[in-house]
Design brief:
Layout (H helix, E strand, L loop, with lengths): L10 E2 L1 H8 L3 H9 L7 E4 L2 E5 H13 L3
Length: 67
């Protein structure tokens, strides 16, 4: 499945989400708690991940708001 023809939809782990958003772990989880950042999904007993398409959309919305 592709989101834009070039990138495939995938599960992003925290280090990649931090690099993509520019935020640290604590801030990401605070934004999630406030409903202002895509929610992590459980992908294993002790692991979570984020939907790459939701993260990319979140970044796009933030960049478009800077106009």
């Amino acid at each position: 499945m592709t989101t834009d023809g070039n990138k495939s939809r995938r599960i992003m782990r925290l280090p990649e989400v931090k690099a993509t958003s520019g935020f640290g772990r604590t801030h990401i989880y605070e934004l999630m708690k406030e409903g202002r950042f895509p929610k992590a999904r459980r992908i294993g007993v002790r692991a979570v991940g984020w939907d790459s398409s939701e993260i990319e959309q979140w970044v796009t919305e933030r960049l478009e708001g800077w106009v």
